[in-house]
Amino acid sequence: MIDFQKFIKSTTFAIKGIGSMIKSENNARIHLLASVLVISAGFYFQLNLQEWLWISLAITLVWILEALNTAIEAIIDLVSPEFHPLAGKAKDIAAGAVLIASIFALIVGTIIFLPKVLLL
Ligand SMILES: Nc1ncnc2c1ncn2[C@@H]1O[C@H](COP(=O)(O)OP(=O)(O)OP(=O)(O)O)[C@@H](O)[C@H]1O
Asked: Does the keyword Phosphoprotein apply (predicted)?
């Protein structure tokens, strides 16, 4: 049987996690600002359905990877608070994943918005 109370509780924890990420991570606040700006620009330029889908994919990918990166950082700080090359390697690779998604988002944003900005 589906336990809806449990589902609501775990959704609340997930929202709490997103809130704590935005509070503690400077990069997450940058993603938030970028997301708000891009979505506002999307409304301004009246993007079509396909453009909205690409923008949504790019924004969502960055947020998912930032969340995973933040979680990985927290686990590493817990299990390896002292310096360890593997801890540094894991953090750098997790940060690399965010960078890859951010570059993808930048490419998508440029392809969609640059022609519209040039026509202004
Ligand atoms: N325990 C550790 N052992 C070895 N190197 C570490 C360790 N912790 C952090 N580092 C190195 O220092 C860098 C910065 O670590 P930090 O925990 O500040 O991550 P960050 O990417 O700056 O995260 P934040 O988004 O919280 O600022 C890492 O990318 C890693 O190279």
From this structure: no
